[in-house]
Amino acid sequence: MIINTPSTNRGEHAREQLLYAAADVYGELGLDGATTRKIAQVSGQNIAAISYYFGSKEGLYLAVAQLIADTVKENFCQTLTEIDAYLELTSPDPDEAIKLLQKTLVGYNYFQLEKKNLSFTRILSREQLNPTEAYTIIHEQALGPIYTKLNRLIAIYIGSDPNNLTTLIQTHAILGETLSFRIARETLLRQTGWKHINEDEYKIINQVLIEHTNILLEGLRHRKEAEK
């Protein structure tokens, strides 16, 4: 049995402060640019605490990757449970598939654009360009399972094989549209004249995402039906 003591609670608090401070620093500077001194300074913790809790700067980076994976899983737990229940149906309704797909896309759009997740999305962007062991953690535990489930939803809706290479790439293209709002956020702000992305801006972006998804999948579905 684990008994929480003041010392234990302080240790957990210090570890958490280091994790979130490290996410900010790694997101801004990358693994190579970040220093343990900078992370300790931002966290308000002693630099020796990094070695104590994580072993090294690299160990801390992997712990941040685990934090990202856990946060993604927590945010999408309910939606993925709904998708799993749907996929277990003997004769799933294709129209329900697109509703679940849209719900997940909108949820992911919120996740990546929320200010509190800025450091996470910066790290994810860096890992897409120069993947490390950290991305393996994030992909295998969080992003990969989401991708696989959405791919199955798309396959059901358009009437294709989820293992077909074209279907996999179509899924990637749809997810890529949501990523563009994070990666090219500054371009979007300048072109629209927006100063920020808050609730009203979210609504417009999500409306466009759903509209584009509907148009694309309807077209693919009709093409599959015509091929039969």
Automatic annotation (TrEMBL):
UniProt GO MF annotations: DNA binding
Protein name: Transcriptional regulator CecR
Gene coding for it: cecR
Source domain of life: Bacteria
Organism of origin: Providencia stuartii
Sequence ranges assigned to domain HTH tetR-type in this UniProt record: 12-72
NCBIfam families: PRK11552.1 (NF008587)
Signal peptide: none
DNA bind region: 35-54
Any single Pfam family the record assigns to this protein: CecR_C
Segments crossing the lipid bilayer: none
PROSITE patterns referenced in this protein's UniProt entry, alphabetically: HTH_TETR_1 (PS01081), HTH_TETR_2 (PS50977)
UniProt KW keywords: DNA-binding
